[in-house]
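Whiteboard transcription, Tuesday session. T.W. wrote the structure tokens on the left side:
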């Protein structure tokens, strides 16, 4: 029934904190069990993924570059298969798939493995997987796996598995940063301490925001378009927020880097197009507020994912989806939660099946 469907999804959402804890516990120290040989003389990283895993990988790119100092590319696996990047030396290739069965990701990894085999040692394949299912096709294809320990996810649209993929990338980036000594040990400890606080902070969002977002969703029952904005490490979260809304609410939604609004998308804005902006304190906070004000000047309704008790944000946005104040680098794990809730409640308000959206499968095992 619809009621059962809603309760299952609610249970899944509230499992986000424990799923985050489970992943984190794998790498508290950080102990990922990845051999030194995989990291030796590492010069490049390329990540292959699809859908929500691709969005998690974009956050991963930011972390790997900013913390570990390694140039990183994120590729759609479906595109990489037919137009692979030129071979580079000492390159780690990471495949990210929740199920471990995504056809395009597996085929892209297989191709990368084949085209590097038999080459000089600098070009030999170095393969790593990030998945929620250790005993999957991915687990058999690549020699090293970071298991996300999210548990079974009932809904087709990824929620807690996305969060745990993010945590896996934090652990990988911190592990690399530690081994390469690109940031001080005190900074690594600070970030690990911050990660440990996140499950409780997710609980706080769920407890404080659920009822409000459910009420807010009533106002968007007839809305046909949404725009999501983010900058820096939260740009991929804008993409993921838009994807969740498309997947389960069937509303046309687009995610953009906030600074790109004036390069075309701003033409879409009017009173019928709500704009959701992620504005967390840090290097781009004032910029995002400025971009949001540009949208407001076009009569768009502004919804802000902002820190709790932020007076400046309260003056800018029509509605706030507040999250606990954390440093910008850790914020994606929190900022995505209200966007998942928003998509869920709009879909539920429309009487849609949030667990089994039309035309979608949990695991995309065909091209």
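and on the right, the sequence the group agreed on:
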């Amino acid at each position: 029934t619809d009621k059962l469907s809603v309760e299952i999804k609610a249970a899944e959402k509230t499992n986000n904190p424990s799923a985050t804890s489970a992943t984190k516990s794998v790498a508290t120290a950080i102990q990922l069990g990845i051999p030194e040989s995989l990291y030796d003389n590492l010069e490049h990283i390329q990540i292959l993924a699809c859908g929500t895993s691709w969005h998690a990988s974009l956050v991963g790119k930011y972390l790997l570059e900013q913390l570990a100092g390694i140039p990183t590319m994120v590729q759609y696996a479906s595109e990489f298969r037919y137009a692979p990047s030129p071979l580079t030396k000492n390159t780690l290739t990471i495949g990210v798939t929740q199920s471990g069965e995504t056809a395009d990701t597996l085929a892209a990894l297989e191709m990368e493995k084949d085209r590097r085999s038999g080459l000089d040692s600098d070009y030999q394949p170095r393969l790593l997987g990030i998945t929620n299912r250790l005993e999957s096709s991915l687990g058999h294809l690549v020699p090293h796996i970071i298991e996300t320990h999210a548990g079974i996810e009932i809904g087709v649209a990824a929620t807690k598995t996305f969060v745990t993929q993010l945590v896996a990338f934090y652990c990988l980036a911190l592990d690399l940063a530690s081994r390469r000594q690109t940031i001080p040990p005190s900074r690594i400890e600070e970030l690990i301490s911050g990660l440990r606080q996140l499950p409780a902070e997710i609980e706080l969002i769920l407890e404080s925001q659920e009822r409000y977002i459910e009420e807010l969703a009533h106002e968007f029952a007839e809305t046909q378009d949404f725009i999501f904005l983010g900058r820096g490490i939260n740009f991929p979260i804008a993409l993921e927020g838009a994807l969740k809304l498309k997947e389960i609410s069937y509303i046309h939604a687009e995610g953009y880097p906030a600074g790109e609004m004036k390069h075309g998308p701003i033409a879409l804005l009017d009173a019928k197009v709500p704009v959701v902006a992620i504005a967390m304190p840090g290097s781009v906070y004032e910029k995002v507020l400025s971009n949001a004000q540009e949208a407001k000047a076009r009569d768009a309704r502004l919804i802000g994912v902002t820190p709790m008790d932020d007076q400046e944000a309260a003056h800018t946005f029509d509605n706030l989806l507040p999250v606990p104040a954390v440093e910008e680098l850790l914020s994606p794990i929190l900022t995505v939660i209200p966007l998942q809730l928003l998509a869920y409640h709009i879909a539920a308000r429309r009487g849609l099946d949030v667990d089994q959206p039309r035309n979608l499968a949990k695991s995309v095992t065909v091209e």
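Someone added at the bottom: The chain has two domains: 36-183, 209-350.
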